[in-house]
Every structure is written in C-alpha cells, then in structure tokens.
Amino acid sequence: MGQSHNTTMTPTRVLFNEKGDNGLVLCDKYIPSELLVEIFCNSNLKTLLNCQLVCQRWKMLIQSYVWPKKVEMTLGKPFPRGKNIPWGVFYLICKKKPFERNLIKNHSGGDGVGRHWQIISQGGDQWAIENPPQGVPELPMTESVFEGKQNCFVTSYHFCFKTQQIDLIDEGFTPYVLDVLQPPIEVSEWYSCRWDCPAVYECQVRLLRDGMPLHPSFSSVDVFQLHDNLEGEKQNKWFRASHVFENYGTGVRKINFCHGGIDRSFWAGHYGSKMAGACVYVRVPPVQYTQDDLDTPPILDE
Where's the F-box domain (predicted)? Predict the structure, then answer.
C-alpha cells in the first residue's frame, strides 16, 4: 500500500522591511510616514490602541514616536523621551493627565471638614469652616487654587489635626515615572491666624513607600515639616508654606499630607490657626535630551 503524504505547504514568514511600503499604502494610495504620524497624533487613545495592532510599521510608528508626541501635546510642554521608556507610560499620562494638577481634594473646606480628609484630632470646639475667614484679611485671589472662593479650615483651643493620603499609582503615575524620572513634587498651603489671638500652625508632608503597614514615620522616603508660632507681627497675615521634593530616590508610591493647629489663648470657639489652598503638584520632569533622543526615528527617515 502506498503511503500518504501531507503536501500542505507552511507559508514562509516575511520579515518586516522598513524600506518597504507595508502600512503606507491605503486604498492604493501612498501615504508618507510623516502624514501618517500627524493623523495618529490627532486620533483618540482608543483608536491608537487599535491601530497598534494593524501592522508592524504602524506599531513602530505609534510606540516610538506618536505616544511621546501625544504626551507633549497633552501637557503643552516637552517631556523626557528615551528608547527605554515603555510606551504604556505615555499612554497612561495621556489618559489620566496626572501632571500639573492639584492632587489634594477639598483643599480649602468647600466640601465640608471631613470630605476626603481623615480627622486625627479635633479638640476644643472641633474643626470648622469659615467663609469668609474671620479676623484676617481675605485670601489672596491672585492664587488660582482658590477659584475666587473664600473658604478656609479653622482650628480651636485644643489641637486639631487631619490628614489626606494620595496614592500616586491610582492617580496615573507608573513606577517607571516615579523611580526613574523622579519628577519634582511641589507641596504648599496658605495659613494665618486672627489679629486678636495668637496661634500655632503645623504642616507635615511625607513621601511614602508602598505596602508598609507601619506608622508613616517608618515608611517615609522623605519628609517636609513646618511648625510656626503665629504671634505679634505674624498675626493677621496670610503666609504660604511650600516645599519641593527632588531626587528623592526609588520607592515613592504615596504622599501623606497632614496639617493642623491650635489657638494659644485657649478661647472657646474657633480662634486657632486657619489654613486653605493645600496643594500637591507633581511637576513635569526636566527634559535633558541626548542626541539619540533628538535624532529622527529611523522609520521616519526615508
């Protein structure tokens, strides 16, 4: 009996040729890479994710050039580029827009005392909201954070403290951005006390590692602390506490913002320190291009 043979031919895999027209001819029309890139840069995120799957050329164009360009269009300023930056980093920045926005929620009490804040202590007559602030000048309306409103938190005759924790991963920052690029983290808040009652203001901001069940002081990567006795010439004025964290090393995943105070005359009511406009901004990291970053991607250099 004769033996049967399988004569089905296995197709030979064709390697991608950067010099070819694959991915550049649509409906018998040739589209230059430069024009294709412009089309991609003005497409929405879902479309770009789908286009990456069409062919090797489109994938290379989008991941090596379009995503970085899309980020710069989103931010309105240059952003670090490099062959080692995963394209998913750029995608997440475009999707969640984590840079250059205030990550503190309910920064001045417009949503009430406890909304987005965890109360640690509220001695005396407890935390309160004032609108407008009593016994002090108006908040500086030149500051955009206030959005034209005159809300502030105010403390009492025993210590009042509260805290808010920010999860940077949830906000849209990837471990690569936090550990490798280490963007500057700027924190600030306005504070004051009445003309007729001295007070104490305290602020503590900690950069925290993730997955540490211990007290924040044990899991801190870096910390900013301010203790200010407001008396005499310091009364009846608004001050701005601020600090920029830079070169903080690897491991930062969360930020803990804690503030509070007390009045120093121990008067019933709300004569303690006042605070408003708490801010945590992650700034776009400085750009230091190498020649490799400035060179035109080979796929566009035709």
Answer: 31-70
Structure tokens at 203: 């602020």
**Chain-centroid distance, C-alpha 257:** 14
Assigned CATH topology for domain 25-97: Monooxygenase (1.20.1280)
pLDDT value at 287 more than 50 = yes
How far is Cα 252 from Cα 222, in angstroms, rounded to an integer? 9
User: Distance (Å, rounded) from C-alpha 103 to C-alpha 201?
Assistant: 22
Q: Residues of CATH 2.60.120.260 domain(s) within the chain?
A: 101-282
Give this prediction's pTM: 0.85
pLDDT tens digits along 15-68: 444 555 555 666 667 778 888 889 899 999 999 999 999 888 889 899 999 999
Enumerate residues 6+ apart whose C-beta is below 8 A from 146.
Answer: 108, 139, 140, 276, 277
Q: Are strands 185-192 and 239-245 parallel, antiparallel or unpaired?
A: antiparallel
CATH architecture for residues 101-282: Sandwich (2.60)
Burial class (CB in 10 A: 0-12, 13-18, 19+), 239: middle
CATH 1.20.1280 maps onto the chain at 25-97
Query: Using CA atoms, how far apart are residues 198 and 262, in angstroms rounded to an integer?
Result: 9
DSSP state, residue 143: S
